[in-house]
């Protein structure tokens, strides 16, 4: 059963067609990777799904509900969370507060101005536990904006996955991390998305082929293939359009 | 986690200071200044809910202060004419409720966006309300304003509030309660999300929060507490005019919060105290005090972007290591010529402004028309400036030593200017 389905989704910036007629079905529980060359429109597609951009045409359905052109917070409340390619955290809040804020809505606090955060012991423990998982426990009291780059990436990932959404979308989660940091992050992603649906944009093919159940290849805003890793590897079109290119440049 | 007693300590100090100050400073003037401080503290704290906590730069916060104050005076009048019957101790609440209602209405459209749009709307609404206050004379009383009398209504334990000191203690109680609630607000989900939205409204929307709603809630709360401050004003002065809701008042509360330090809860309290003192004391000595206030503001923005509170907090690292005493001498060495330089600048400004054309400073007569006076002053000022500059490197290196611990985090404290630039 598909949890997310895109039909005929287009996005134009002025006259430029960035996303062209994308059809995509994400099956509940699968780990889905989106690959494609730089500028293919992968991040734009994420922005369309998560509500940051409005679609120019087409429909997007999440858990059977139309979500295109709805504000991000409504889409998030339906159980869709995402991370950003460019780090997007709360720089003046400390690391712990970042994590706790990421938990608030999903734990039912809403806009409460009558509950004191210091008293919410299970919430606070949960935030600390998340920090432990992303390896930032000892940085808890530091303003997030003062973290090192790789640590900010870890926090970015943590904020996205904290709420326990059913569908988690990660835009190049390990870009800029060292090899061992990336390994840890992939391990974390695997653990946290267990039993959940994951869509991930990633350039590192080892990670992609390792994690993904299915792969979608996006080139110039068009889906040229969606299939299992083995078949994608064997697909001539994909090799020409993308994988060959990667092999050459690598 | 801080222990409970550590958390309660500042509050106990706050309470003791408020209760004790009128015992030490008990002249009529002192009590009147204390009353002004009480009002300013609540007003400035409420302003910081917008700017410091919520990232909303408002040029029209006096609207909620003023509207609350006007309704409070009308409530006093109604008590006097026995249309309603309740003790005047609840007047600040009346102001608060009206401030809240006004903020709910105006916030419903102004909080859609932060940044320039919000600032411009706040300015426009401020002008609009200030203009209508001169149009709707029956409510606002035109240029003369409206006045009431706080001595009617049922007395509280026999107190009828004839005296300023009685009003002071009533105000102090309200200030304490209001401060406490504003602080507690910062510790709630809505209060914390206000910080998050200030930092990054976009990301807040991807963790389930509508940035607009978050701003709206802070805005409404800020309106409520500004109204409480307006109610305190009404009680203290027993009258209110258009001046109390116009742009000048809005500007003053911005200055208070900013100079005190937006990033700290205590900042606006410091700002309110300092500016009220400057306002009341300096204005007795010099007609130019507004100029000095302006200069102070510019200097704060340039050199202490985190305000007085930020300046105090900068010393935490040195304090924690017991190295604060190493800073004392360098501070004096730089501070004395700096103070001299400041005084000389003030003397020059005053002399150029002086009506009689002459000033007597430390037995020396300075004449406006004498070039010798000016040359001497200019020379002394330049010398003081030079001395300040020369001692600065010493202070800087002393600062570095005092803040040096193995951890690189400590050196970050030093570069407050860069940090402040990043924040804004
Ligand atoms: N807001 C915008 N306005 C105009 N053009 C845009 C906008 N956002 C993206 N684009 C363009 O759309 C194209 C796709 O960008 P996008 O960021 O989606 O690519 P991507 O596949 O994520 O690339 P990368 O692998 O480098 O992250 C690019 O050519 C980009 O310049
Ligand atoms: Mg991208």
Helicity of chain B, as a percent range: over 70%
- CATH class of chain A, anyone? Alpha Beta
**CATH class designation of the largest domain in chain B:** Mainly Alpha
Can you tell me the residue ranges of chain A where pLDDT is under 50 for at least 5 consecutive residues? none
Radius of gyration of chain B: 24 Å
CATH fold label of the largest domain in chain B: ABC transporter involved in vitamin B12 uptake, BtuC
Number of domain units of chain B:
2
What is the ordering of alpha helices and beta strands of chain B? HHHHHHEHHHHEHHHHHHEEHHH
Looking at the overall shape, the CATH architecture of chain A is: 3-Layer(aba) Sandwich
Structural write-up:
The complex is a heterodimer of chains A (250) and B (424). Chain A has 250 residues and is of the alpha/beta class. Chain A has one domain (2-249): P-loop containing nucleotide triphosphate hydrolases (Rossmann fold, 3-Layer(aba) Sandwich), CATH 3.40.50.300. Helix content of chain A is 37%, strand content 25%. Chain A contains nine helices and ten strands. Chain A has helices at residues 42-50, 72-77, 95-104, 121-133, 149-162, 179-192, 205-211, 229-234, 236-249, and strands spanning 2-13, 16-27, 31-35, 57-62, 65-66, 80-82, 167-171, 197-201, 214-219, 222-227. In chain A, the strands form two sheets. In chain A, strands 6-7-8-3-9-10 form a six-stranded mixed β-sheet, with helices on both faces. In chain A, strands 2-1-4-5 form a four-stranded antiparallel β-sheet, covered by helices on one side. Chain A is globular. The model of chain A has no long low-confidence stretch (mean pLDDT 91). The two termini of chain B are 29 Å apart. The longest helix of chain B has 32 residues, at 371-402. In chain B, the strands form two sheets. A two-stranded antiparallel ribbon of chain B has the order 1-2. In chain B, strands 3-4 form a two-stranded antiparallel ribbon. By secondary structure, chain B is mainly alpha-helical. Chain B is built from 19 helices and four strands. Chain B has helices at 4-24, 28-50, 62-80, 91-110, 115-135, 137-140, 164-186, 189-199, 201-205, 211-237, 247-260, 267-285, 289-303, 307-313, 316-320, 325-353, 371-402, 409-412, 416-423; strands at 146-147, 239-240, 358-361, 364-367. Chain B has two domains: 9-313, ABC transporter involved in vitamin B12 uptake, BtuC (Orthogonal Bundle), CATH 1.10.3470; 316-407. Chains A and B meet through α2 and α3 of A and α8, α9 and α10 of B. The complex binds adenosine-5'-triphosphate (ATP) and magnesium ion.
